Amino acid sequence: MKIDLSGKVALVTGATGELGRVIARSLAECGADVALHYHSNESKAAELKSAIEAMGRRAVAVKADITKQGSVEEMKQAVEAGLGQADIVVANAVVQYQWTSVLEQPAEDYASQFESCVMQSVYLAKSFIPAMIEKKGGRFIGINTECSMQNFPTQSAYVAGKRGMDGVYRVLAKEVGEHQITVNQVAPGWTISERDRANGTERSEGYEQSVPLKRRGTDQEIANAVVFLASDLASFITGAYIPVSGGNVMPSI
Fold it and tell me: Signal peptide span per the entry (predicted)?
């Protein structure tokens, strides 16, 4: 048994980010052609595009503002022109900001998280799911976070955006399930990235002690969960919020 995404077209938003590029490469390694969304890092998008093409897969790099419906629709048109209709959509992009307390957090940070978590997902659904309905199948995957269950101090804007996103995904899963489209979320813990490896910051003993597996997860382990959900092996999984956090958070029943 193996994951084979041959003949599939995947879109990854925020593909030039630390996690996004590992997800994109992993999808390509399993046979998918990949559309690489970026907001400003054109050089990294071009580098990633070349790397995926070197695997023998097709790739396109597409610049877009995922917080604007018109820009997302233009991205869809570019993806279809370059690769064809998307079978797999991975909503990974999110606006970065400085975390602080509720009393000190600027109001615009709450707006940015709502736009990049909730509205990105809505715009992606409106643009890409109609074609999935026509084809009677597809995978819609969002990157959430363990923070949605933690609700720790200084997390409020991020948690607000991601918990709102969670509501959209759960409802959407029920609305499009009859078309054999699955809608799921992967919720990473504090993940070791390429930047951590370069800077020697992989370890965090305080955090690791709270994790049952006593370590931080890797970007590849997060990407593995995404690839699984994108595959036929996950054809009967929908509406799920799946922590990939070493047991640091555990949804209850």
Answer: none
pLDDT of residue 147: 98
Q: Is 250 among the domain residues?
A: no
Q: What is the CATH number of the domain that holds 52?
A: 3.40.50.720
pLDDT of 1 > 90? The answer is: no
Among all residues, which ones are annotated catalytic? 158
- Residue pLDDT, tens place only, 74-108: 999 999 999 999 999 999 999 999 999 999 999 99
Query: pLDDT per residue over 171-200, tens digit each?
Result: 999 999 999 999 999 999 999 999 999 999
| Residue 249 covered by a domain | no
User: What is the model's pTM?
Assistant: 0.97
Number of domains composing the chain: 1
For residue 122, pLDDT over 90 is answered with yes
H, E, C per residue of the chain: CCCCCCCCEEEECCCCCHHHHHHHHHHHHCCCEEEEEECCCHHHHHHHHHHHHHCCCCEEEEECCCCCHHHHHHHHHHHHHHCCCCCEEEECCCCCCCCCCCCCCCHHHHHHHHHHHHHHHHHHHHHHHHHHHHHCCEEEEEECCCHHHHCCCCCHHHHHHHHHHHHHHHHHHHHHHHHCEEEEEEEECCEECHHHHHHCCCCCHHHHHHCCCCCCEEHHHHHHHHHHHHCHHHCCCCCCEEEECCCCCCCCC
Mean pLDDT, the chain, as a whole number? 97
